[in-house]
Design the sequence.
């Protein structure tokens, strides 16, 4: 009798541990999301059916999350010396501390320019701001913020088509969480090797 009661309580205690473990795992998933939402990244059209494909940490660390260039490009201006702002969408309540990077590639996938590197403090949602969801998402659990860089004076483009690669290393956990998305763009204003346009 005693053995049976002990094994029952062991099973109960194991079940409770399993439930707690599952809850902790779920909570940590809920709190671990973020991506660059503007310019819209590849697969953005799936935002409301597969949001986690965009915002979850990617431990595989595949270049551009393994997603190849699409047909659609967002027009952006990259005038040397001017500010350029991208929108970041971060899970509501994610207190991630980390470093962002932004790189520009040509349409063939060659690195054109590093626009930002080790930018600390991006992706922090201030409690005082009103929470605005990225367009198309209806889950109600993300807020948008922004990241502004100054376009380098010596930025010269060889290709008006290309893509931005945004990276974010969240260092609040060990090992760090690694995020990355790519957005296909058409640069409509900037300095070019063939034609020179300033504005
Ligand atoms: Cu996280």
Sequence:
């Amino acid at each position: 009798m005693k053995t049976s009661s002990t094994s029952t309580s062991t099973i109960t205690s194991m079940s409770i541990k399993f439930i707690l473990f599952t809850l902790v795992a779920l909570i940590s998933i809920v709190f671990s999301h973020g991506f660059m939402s503007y310019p819209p990244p590849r697969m953005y059209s799936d935002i409301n059916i597969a949001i986690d494909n965009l915002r979850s940490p990617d431990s595989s660390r595949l270049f551009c999350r393994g997603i190849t260039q699409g047909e659609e490009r967002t027009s952006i201006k990259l005038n040397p010396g001017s500010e350029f702002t991208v929108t970041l969408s971060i899970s509501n309540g994610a207190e991630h501390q980390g470093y962002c990077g932004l790189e520009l590639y040509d349409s063939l996938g060659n690195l054109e320019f590093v626009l930002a590197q080790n930018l600390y403090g991006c992706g922090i949602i201030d409690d005082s701001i009103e929470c605005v969801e990225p367009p198309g998402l209806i889950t109600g659990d993300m807020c948008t913020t922004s990241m502004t860089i100054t376009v380098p004076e010596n930025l010269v483009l060889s290709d008006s088509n290309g893509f931005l690669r945004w990276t974010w290393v969240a260092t609040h956990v060990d090992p760090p969480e690694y995020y990355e998305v790519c957005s296909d763009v058409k640069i409509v204003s900037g300095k070019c090797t063939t034609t020179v346009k300033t504005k």
Notes: The helical segments are 2-30, 52-55. The longest strand covers residues 177-190.
